[in-house]
Amino acid sequence: MTPPANTPPPEDEDDKKGKKGKKEKKGNGKGRTQRPNAFSPSKARQARSHPAADAAVRMLPPRQYEIEQNGTPIYDGFGLVVTTANPLVQERFVELLRFLGRIYVADSNTLFRMLYYRRFDLRTTHRDLKMLVEQRLVWSATSSGIGPKMKANRPRHWSKVYGLSRAGKQLLMNMGVESDVATAEQLVARDVRGGKVPKPSSLAHDLQVTWWCASMIEGLRLLPWCTGIYCQTELTVIQGQRPDAYLVARFDVNHPRPDLNAIPWIGGTPLRPNEVELRWALELDNSTESVNILVDKFITYRDLHAMGTYQRVLGGDVLLVLIVQNARRAAYLAAEFTRAWPQGWGLVSTPDRMGANSTPYGALWGTYFDMNSEQRVPLLSRLCRDAQQRVDEYAPLLTYEMWLTYLALQKAGTPPTKIDDLFDDKEHS
Fold it and tell me: What is the rounded distance in angstroms from the CA atom of residue 36 to the CA atom of residue 210?
């Protein structure tokens, strides 16, 4: 029986015996237990991932950094080794700073899963974060919304969360690691001088935004046709509008991308032939905003679409994704959306197992409903327009069934080359 989508795999008897044996060994004074490596059962338990999702991640090639791509040492004419000026740990630091600048705040487990999981253990993640905090390139704060509950009559465990500091952002801009200046300037950073860090009570909303963005990015990274990802929180996309997160994904429908190692970040580069671009604007409701404020946001989306602002400024339509904490409020806000924007387009879901977290493969393949028609719509869908330039339907680029077909073909050693091949396999199956 397959465990639920967000339930970690159970420990087997060998793991339990191994734990007991290690404790007895330590008690006998025979030294410290062996540190868990990148492929140990202990690391797998730290990840808390679903077995099906973990199997999909393991189909990716091993994480390889730029410094490792040329394994042959370089010598000069005198036979002296030309050493690299940028060690591997610096590449890790840059990758972590770039990720934090895009999603604003994250806990160590999220950073471990997104950036370290296929090469390093959780201790390496903590060590890197500690060093970056000491150098004031990253700020840290405490949050009570993460981690399992403690034993009875004890408070919930307080965990640390991390974000990019202004010094860290300036370092990235000086290094020129982003593809364009605008992308670097949009990174979210805080001034940590004088201990100015967010309060724990204000982080719950931001951390759920981080979960949705990270889950989307991880799902998109597993798709070989996804050639680029842009994600930014706290971004003023257009004057007068600032969604909780803005996410863009590009797809080459005919050619899978050759580099599957890292997250394929993109900036302001133009679309290439055969590429398709999808855009989402996330609005996360945790019942702290009044309904009138949310209705004003719906009207803003309606007016900007009607005036063609998204087409002119962003190059295409933006699909609103509304995440609400429970089904009852989701239905109520969907009705308000319909009144504010009849025949409009926007998706609604919840963060539980009945909504965006309904499959083992994260928010990208979750359950979303159109707020007007109440029909289920795949998140990877394009908006099709009629002769009067009105959106009349959703055209799925990829569905969950096609994703499962891709995994089956990949496991069988016959991966498809084009997205259309998945349509053919679906019709024949």
Answer: 27
Q: H-helix or E-strand containing 228?
A: strand 226-233
Q: Which residue has the tokens 């496991």?
A: 411
β-strand 275-285 against 245-252: which pairing, if any?
A: antiparallel
Right CATH for 84-198 from 3.90.79.10, 1.10.10.10, 1.20.120.1200, 1.10.357.140: 1.10.10.10
Q: Give the bridge partners for 352, in sequence order.
A: none
Nearest to residue 224, comparing CAs of 256, 271, 180, 263?
A: 256
Q: Residue 374's beta-bridge partner residues?
A: none
Contact 146, 161 (CB under 8 A): yes
Sequence spans of domains, the chain: 84-198, 201-398
281 backbone dihedrals φ, ψ, rounded to 5°: -120, 120
What does the alpha-carbon distance between residue 190 and residue 201 come to, in Å, rounded to a whole number? 17
pLDDT in tens, 82-119: 877 777 889 899 999 999 999 999 999 999 999 998 88
Give how far the C-alpha of residue 379 lies from the chain's centroid of Cα atoms, to the nearest Å: 14
What pTM was computed for the model? 0.85
- The answer to whether 223 and 264 are in contact (CB under 8 A) is no
Q: For 157-209, how does the pLDDT look when each residue is reduced to its tens digit (9 = 90+)? A: 568 999 999 999 999 999 999 988 889 999 999 987 766 778 777 799 999 99
